[in-house]
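Sorry to interrupt, but I need a hand with the structure work. Can you supply me with one protein entry, sequence and fold together? No commentary is needed, just the two lines. Leave the record below and I will have a look.
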Amino acid sequence: MVAERNTYPIEIAGVYRELTLIEVQPGLRIAVLNILGDSELVQACAEALSQKMGVIEYDVLITAEAKSIPLAHALAVETGKPYIVLRKVYRPYMGDTIHAETISITTGRPQSLYLDEKDHNLIAGKKVVLLDDVISTGSTLEGMKQIVEKASGTITAEAAILTEGDQAKWEHIISLGHLPLFSTDYD
């Protein structure tokens, strides 16, 4: 039997969801946005972000594996722009990759990001939008920035469904909303 957990109610792009609160470190909980399999929410977010990004000039979207992949795909379909997924595990078929290290708030461990060799030319000399589902600490975003810089691309915007934590830190992010952080005392 699954234990009942506290939730945080939110409306994103006109879609209502109850986000489960999960403790990620002692005394700290986050409201988990998991868009995997939620096609209604993904499509609504892609449409809303496409409108917000309408004035941004860019050639390609870049996201990190895995939860934001459906968003990148839906936004690519919506805008007609290609997207690249930075992988978290190197595979030999990826060839000569470009690599960066990050630490995620959800895992608490170092993780790697890899740009597949076949995607180098989609970034070199191109305008790029970095895309994530939720930006919390900025670690994944920093890893994506390092890869774009190493691949000789130019970042023209950063976008996410939601930002989290220190809202002032994320004022430059194109987003559809903001999540607070929660203490373990929050009900």
